[in-house]
Amino acid sequence: MERRTLLGLAAAALAARGAAAQDRFPVRPVRIVIPFAAGGSTDILARLCAQILTERLGQPVVAENVTGAGGTIGAQRVLDAPADSYTLMAGTPGPVTINPHLQPRLPYQPLRDFEPVVFVGDSPAVIVVRRDSPIRTLQDLVAQAKAAPGRMTYASAGIGSFAHLSGELFKWRGGLDMTHIPYRGTSPAATDIIGGRVDAMFENYPSVQGQISSGELRVLALGAARRSALLPGVPTVAEAGVPGYESTSWFGLFARAGTPPAATEAINAAVNAGIRTPAVTSRLADLGIEPAGGTPADFRAYIQRKLDETGELIRTARITAE
């Protein structure tokens, strides 16, 4: 009887210690899994978040690149870890809002298996042409596409990519017939735009920011709901004549579903505070990102909306992964 009492007291003490550790999150290093290769915008943003969290939570936060299958392998790595917020995922449209509609055997459902923790920021799609293109405005592009259905071409980083879906959304909203030319990444697509082998491209602003800054590519319009300080003077697609068009890429942190709320709230508060400091705001602007922030519930609602919109587009445009 005495032994059982002692065991019970020991178990209660361990449980109390575990609960206290959760309340004190974090008590050991945290890992952010990046589902893409090093050097891209997702990698840079994840490492910026790791720096913010390290400074504000008092524990080392390290970033790890786990690539493959359009982000699915990295996502699975997070699902294989305990639901304690010590393993986070750097989330973007591909593995979270696009792949679920293109990969029927995906081993997860985003809002069932992951917990949105914090919305870090987003960036608009931009419609670009080469600098010496005769297409000077978005109205020119629409007029040419309507005059010769199917002849105008647009490049993307591959089937099912953000760039591809942005182009298909433009075709849908504008009632246009344009020919999609998929490439194996943004770099070769941009090279062929600059070389005049393809007419236009719909791409996430940070991915072509360098070519825009150098003058090799000219921006016709951006896909945000309103004009952006990142591109002063550039109209939105809706302003320029295609109403209802909105295409933005986004970045945020996710944890496994079932993560303790105290841990989620600690990460959310730290990132919200960090992205509002002048130094980080300036760094995000350099990367072509506008800071977002908000609560985990705000981020969940945003992801649900993006999932619904992306699914509708993929079904309407009959996009498949092949």
In short:
By secondary structure, this protein is an alpha/beta fold. It contains 12 helices and 10 strands.
Structure in words:
This protein is α/β, with parallel strands linked by helices. The chain has two domains: 28-123 and 249-317, 3-Layer(aba) Sandwich (D-Maltodextrin-Binding Protein, domain 2); 124-248, D-Maltodextrin-Binding Protein, domain 2 (3-Layer(aba) Sandwich), CATH 3.40.190.10. The chain has twelve helices and ten strands. Strands 1, 2, 3, 4, 5, 6, 7, 8, 9 and 10 form a ten-stranded mixed β-sheet that branches. β5 (153-156), α7 and β6 form a beta-alpha-beta unit. The chain starts with a helix and ends in a 5-residue tail after the last helix. The model is unreliable at 6-22 (pLDDT under 50).
